[in-house]
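Pasting two entries for a bug report.
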Amino acid sequence: MPPTGPRRLSLQEIVDGHRRAAFVGREDELALFRANFEVPPEDPRHRFVFHVRGNAGVGKTSLVREWERAARESGALAAWVDDAAESIPEVLASVAAQFAGQGHPLKALDRLLTTYRRQLHETTAVPADGEPSPGALAASQAGLMVAGTIPVLGALAGGLDPATVARGAGGLRAVFGGRARQEEEARLSAEPVQVLTPVFVAELERVADTVPWVTLFLDTYERTAPVLDGWLTDLLTPHRYGNLPANLVLTLAGQRRLDPVRWSGYGRLLADVPLAPFTERESRRLLTGRGVLDETAVREVLRLSGGLPVLVSTLAANPGAFEDANATAVERFLAAESDPGRRAAALACALPRRLDEDLVAVAAPDAGPGLHDWLNELPFVAGRYTGRARYHDVVRAPMLRLERTASPRRWAEAHERLAGAFADRRDRAAEGVAPDRLWIEEPWREAALDALYHRLCAHPRSALPDALRAGIDACGQDPVAARHWARTLAEAGEDTDSAVLRDWGRDLLTALTDHGPRVAAALGLLLTRAELTDTDRAAALVTRAWDHYRAGGAEAALSDHGRAVAMDPRNARAFQGRAVVLRALGRYEEALADLDRAEGLAPDWARSVRERGETYRRMGRLEEALTVLDRAHAMDPADAVPLGSRGLVRHRLGRHEEALDDFDRAIALRPEYRWALVRRARVRSVLGDHVGALADLDRAEELVPGRAGTAGERGEVYRATGRHEEAVAEYGRALALDPDYAWALGSRALAYEQLGRTRDALADLDRALEIDPQYAWAREQRNRLTGGTGGTG
């Protein structure tokens, strides 16, 4: 066997090595950061937060990248995130992915992020409204069910067996854990930060025990601060989200000072690192390293660059070409290239927001060979050979301005070519993806937004209506994508100097940032646009209605659906959506009438059929529900919801083996379908497979820890197998998670009875009836235990 030679470096590693070798200056800042790893966290001199600030082009990213490498050399786990992450869940996902790449996966966070993404993108498809069946309508009206707040799981929410229904509102808490549990189920979709962050903190604590340091670097903070600032200061606040590990070091890099009000209490934790332009000594060192020794040339570079490192590096490429005192900044940037064709190509390649070899060929079709490699050697190009290279903003901005003003026709034609190229990528990325999931898929989203950006740059006003329509779809599928969309409008406005685009982008970003995952405010802005047709407005109203519904605003949702129907009577989604809201309110016949209209307009749309099956099920018309759900499954075999819902119907009909088969198939389609796992556990327990039931509950707990309903179901399995002490413990855990979980109190009372603890059993039943005076089953049990001598309430 031939000897194994040294590992061959990748192209990126070689380029990175060259870049590191060229890094000069900032010795004090590098020493400050490195020295911090020598100071234990308990030492008052240790700093937990570094804030690098300075103007564009001053070298913040380069310094932070050096700090990241210094951290890794000190054995730190490191993650670097910039403004490509538009939201806190995106930041967490990026950190988790990078930690996993270093051998330290954040498994619990990854699972929760997966669940969140699925919930977020299926809420419009699978709204939740509890179990407004005849036996539970009173509970619904009493506020025990929050309309539209349980993403993903709602289609199954009404599938209760007869014994549970017989228990009334208290029995419904076996599934939901009462209103508090229902709202908790909603939180992951409605308040992802509050749910995800404690898990993130717990995962940080876990991995921090295995590494010397954990380091997080947040670059371009001037853009992400509106989203991240409050979250970070909350993260640092004791007991807000849990205890952060003491070996965590956070670095922020942005153009502006930190908010003095928000960060005023963290001065002792924080090192403020303002970056000024290079001193003359540092600039001269860089020029010497580049072989620029002629004093006249050195002085000219110093004068023109202002000490900005990116400009010093750029102008150093050909310092002798400064004879023309009237040369523009762009001419200075490209002074190293004498070929006018290549200079023109370099200008053309400033137009796309990201570069790869194919895009270079589209932006500069007449350029000769080798242009892509040549561009990647230019000092103002970042992210070289990654497929995501881009010009530094300090250099790109004047190039765009020159191209836009020099030849408006050439500007528009180039952007049209680029828009076409990205449209082709977008269409290829759509293959095999459901239309209502396109904005969720990053390859499609990136290509679609780049196509949109270039069309806006080519024709700002005429392309705006299509851009706004795209925003309606983005808001409907993915609030995170909606922020990317709004930023695209803002960037197109800046790059085309279009006040209309710039203002719309800014206002939409503000609306989407200030309201977290809610998109209603942004859709309200879109509804004011004269450019939208009635069909567009109806689509925006339907999307906003779902947003209201998920937040518990059933009446607002009804209003928006009604307006959509009036504006576009052929909008099947408006009828289907209104039907779901009406069903949640117990108005079943009206819901069925709307589903008739939806199916009449779109007879091949499986979702309307599925919702009809759901409605029959919640009305207690189980045989009709079974027939319709069969049809829904036949129309869309890849949809897990009809299978899960049919499993619940079969379970209620006593057809447990068939129910188990449906749950098996639903979970095979969607392995992280937590609610289906919990329901399958119930069926397995009924069939005597208590080991399988516990395995399902283990998996459900692993997917989403800390759910009272999961603990309550585990208590049921233990009680069914005579493990009463363990049952009491699990019911107790469920009640610790939700003290108003009346069903758990009733079930624990039975376990107490089996242990001979009648007094404790009666106390639990009294408490259950105090929580829910209509809990008939609990009253019956209390009367039984007391010999019919009366009850509480």
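Entry 2 (this is the one that rendered wrong in the viewer):
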Amino acid sequence: MHPTTITTAVGSPAERLEGRDKVTGTARYAAEHTPPDCAYAWPVAATVARGRVTAVDTDAALAVPGVLAVLTPWNAPRLGEADDPTLAVLQDDTVPHRGWYVALVVADTLETARAAAGALPVTYAAEPHDVTLTDDRPDAYVPDEANGGVPGRRERGDAPGAFAAAPVRVDVTYRVPPLHNHPMEPHAATARWDGDRLIVHDSSQGSVPVRGALATLFGLPEERVTVVSEHVGGGFGSKGTPRPHVVLAAMAAGHVRRPVKIALPRRELAAVVGHRAPTVQRLRLGARPDGTLISVSHEVTTYTSRVKEFVEQAAVPTRVMYGSPHSLTAHHVVRLDVPSPSWMRAPGEAPGMYALESAMDELADALGMDPIELRAVNDPDTEPDSGLPFSSRHLVECLREGADRFGWAGRDPRPATRREGPLLIGTGVAAATYPVLLSPSTASATALPDGTHTVRVNATDIGTGARTVLAQIAADALRVPLTSVRIEIGSTRLPDAPLAGGSSGTASWGWAVHAACTDLAERLARHTGPLPADGLTASADTTEATREAPAFARHAFGAHFAEVGVDTTTGEVRVRRLLGVYAAGRILNPRTARSQFVGGMTMGLGMALTEHSTLDPAFGDFAERDLAAYHVPSHADVPDIEAHWIDEEDDHLNPMGSKGIGEIGIVGTAAAIGNAVHHATGVRFRELPLTPDRVLPALSSRS
């Protein structure tokens, strides 16, 4: 259905309003803005894993026709103190990890800048480095907080004692390697100075944090900084905070007094825009013979950089999922000479639920119990960690619905019993959860004399369809056709709004849009006579409303099912079917929602089977730094993937009754696939990804 024919609003499968602009090239991304006299910048990355820059020989580069400047730690503009140390680029000669930027070449053309940067002589004083994570590091410590401000350690009862006394026990360790975001659009920015004003087009998940960082770094009032992030080609968390490229673009533009654009080379993304840190996760589950959990322990060891602390909160979902009288969840972190890890889709939940849901499958095997029934037995009425009631929790309903759709009842639970020629066939299940997050937002809505309505909110659409869903919310509140609503997003010139992250965007922005449009509808109902030429406007700020949210544990839940075929000749694992069933509040747009669920599940498939990175201990850098070496799933890897949801009403969320859906799709997928591989082969693999070099030797040893 074409969007111009849609007259219903929330709940309809409206097509993306910007879809035609994207496929015709009208939608312009950060690097596609080319002001007059625009120059190009190319960064120079450190080639030592730790040390100092002792010299940068700029003479040869500056002699190249078209080179405008070479910025180094000694001549780059001085910046204000950064809240995020990764933004303090070219401010001193320190090299905290390989890939840290040590120079920037600015030239008339991209080709000239790249060639000059590639030939720039840089010398270093290298120092010993350490990039190796193990689970027995004596220098590991428990942080006060992991990401999101959650406590680094939580303990309830006596988990070790209860585990030792439990009739049935599982004590296992799971490993997840470093993972990388790799959005389709690399991190890019175009910056120009207009007198003492800075205007930036940035590929970012939130222009407000970028504006704040640039204002601090360049000593400007925020009102003199404009950041536009109107179209963004994916982020997966890596664009959730300001990154060095936007600072370099603004710095270079001020230095050469011309607009400057920069697009980071994909091979450098792993070192400068964050990644999912590796985790070593020990799970100890103690249960009664009927499956009731007595004790749950989840201890995570991970790393952070020496630049700043970032702790993957992988034990946190265990605090939410299953009831037990005794619980221990803790994070242990080691500082290494590695690039700073950061947000990646479902941080904490994706690696943590892989380990927990795999361990639950092992416990079901030890009990001789169906894994769905084990989860149902331990489904709590209140959140185990906080004791708060759930605003809604329909995990068991997702499991039952998924089992019916998947044909779980016909499954032979015995491992390695189903074979098709050289293929061993197996099925697996895992649960998923993701918190409902809300942030204050503002928005405005204007009714114009021509019968159209303009909604303004500084939301960011990173490919989720936010524009369309916000227009649907507005049309619903205004009681007008969707075709009469025009959405303006993605600029700090618009009413302030939070970034697109934590699956919180639509819930936060939509609340403000709903409030502004509801107010406008009431004003229009009272208005008599023609509208003024500039229309009638209403604004909303949800700061107070979000603070007054009732005391509930608010989460989305889901169930993932997978069928795999494992080739006994090659060790290759192929996913034949994937099914996800979700309880995620009111689904505002089935078309864009299904796209998000399927995209998350596809990313989870990559996490399970192909995606990984390796830190070279000798050189201190990632070996897999591009899409030729870091393998993401292709269409051929996803032959049959389905997403469904149950009707869920929750009055404790926001006016739309919606929960975030962008991340929960990845959360349980890897565990479901891993559990299916065990069911197919009888071999339990506890380290991702399940590549042939890992699978085939294990199969051979059993034959």
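Dev reply: Rendering is fixed now. As a check, the viewer should reflect this: The CA atoms of residues 586 and 656 lie 7 Å apart.
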